[in-house]
Specification:
Blueprint (H helix, E strand, L loop, with lengths): L13 H11 L3 E10 L9 E4 L4 E2 L5 H15 L20 H9 L2 E6 L11 E9 L5 E6 L3 H10 L4 E7 L28 E5 L7 H14 L9 E5 L4 H18 L8 E4 L3 H13 L4 H4 L2 E2 L11 H16 L3
Parallel strand pairs: 6-7, 6-9, 7-8, 9-10, 10-11
Antiparallel strand pairs: 1-2, 1-5, 2-3, 4-5
Helix pairs in contact: 4-9
């Protein structure tokens, strides 16, 4: 079973890409041809999607599309002054992250003469509009356990722009989501879940912790200028208290290696009663974890909203995650 949490292959058509990246909360640019004069590679209203590491669809013309892709990624990285619609002026040093975010939220247009500048022989010109979406990194969650509360939580997360990897060692817990499609390739497993929720069936859930933490650190370094609140979340809610403890320890051990003062550490939360929370903390301290390290564990998780039904608990967890994500 793949434990690398790989992002799916990019779609082919721009409208499929727009739907997928909007749902997953991935930063992307919708590039649209809004004016055409003379001969051009594509017609008016042609579109393509550009992310930091992928493209889907085409605006035609090798050099034109190459420059559109570069420009789009400069916008995503906050390297272009989006308030200037006629030139690609780099941002001045010393501008605040908030100011950069405002520029990156703006619609940006760029005119392309299709002659000597782009080494194209069309002879005409086009104007391309760049629209930025999801420039703030999405919530990214690693959820362990597929019981009643986790299933209810997925119903909530299905409606939010986020990325979720959902891990359990019990095949029967994901059976309700299996797609029974006669056209499915033999041996291929597909699920009736939104594309941004990815189930993982694995006997060793602990192995998912380290790659996820490493991913959060890498993302924090890339998005240092625009990070707001907590982006990455590890939620532990399995059927086995011993496995819960192993997952908590594995996460805290990875924190120690990175440095517990790092602001890019993911949120770590474990579902529990007050009794279970006290037992876990005592066990951590007995195993020579410092109080400072033990304090990185939120247990029990969720806001105190009342109600013990699975959906009530799931709502309290989702509310806490959203609160931390938006830094409220």
């Amino acid at each position: 079973m793949n434990k690398s949490l790989i992002t799916p292959m990019p779609p082919t058509k721009w409208y499929d890409g727009l739907a997928q990246y909007q749902q997953q909360g991935i930063a992307h640019i919708l590039a649209t041809v809004v004016a055409v004069n003379g001969s051009a590679p594509r017609e008016l209203q042609s579109k393509m999607i550009v992310t930091l590491d992928a493209c889907c669809d085409t605006l035609g013309g090798g050099s034109l599309e190459h420059d559109v892709t570069i420009t789009a990624r400069q916008l995503l990285n906050g390297e272009i002054n989006g308030t200037d619609a006629r030139s690609t002026q780099p941002l001045k040093e010393g501008k605040s992250a908030k100011a950069q975010a405002v520029r990156r939220d703006a619609v940006y247009t760029k005119h392309y003469p299709l002659g000597a500048t782009l080494a194209q022989c069309c002879g005409g010109s086009v104007t391309v509009m760049f629209e930025c979406f999801n420039v703030t990194p999405p919530m990214t969650l690693l959820v362990f356990g597929a019981g009643h509360v986790a299933a209810a939580l997925m119903n909530i997360l299905a409606e939010l722009p986020c990325q979720v990897d959902w891990v359990d060692s019990r095949a029967e817990m994901f059976e309700r989501y299996l797609t029974h499609n006669p056209d499915t390739v033999e041996g291929q497993v597909t699920y009736q879940l939104p594309t941004h929720i990815r189930p993982h069936l694995d006997e060793d859930p602990v192995d998912f912790v380290q790659p996820f933490v490493a991913k959060s650190i890498k993302s924090a370094s890339i998005n240092a200028s625009m990070k707001k609140g907590t982006q990455y979340f590890i939620l532990v809610m399995t059927h086995d208290h011993s496995l819960d403890f192993d997952l908590v320890r594995a996460t805290l051990d990875s924190y120690v290696k990175i440095g517990i003062d790092s602001s890019s550490l993911p949120y770590l939360g474990c579902i529990s009663s007050a009794t279970k929370a006290k037992r876990f903390r005592d066990r951590l301290l007995q195993r020579d974890y410092s109080e400072q390290i033990a304090d990185k564990l939120t247990m029990p998780i969720g806001l105190n909203t009342g109600g013990k039904e699975p959906m009530a608990v799931a709502i309290s967890i989702a509310a806490q995650v959203m609160q931390l994500y938006h830094d409220l």
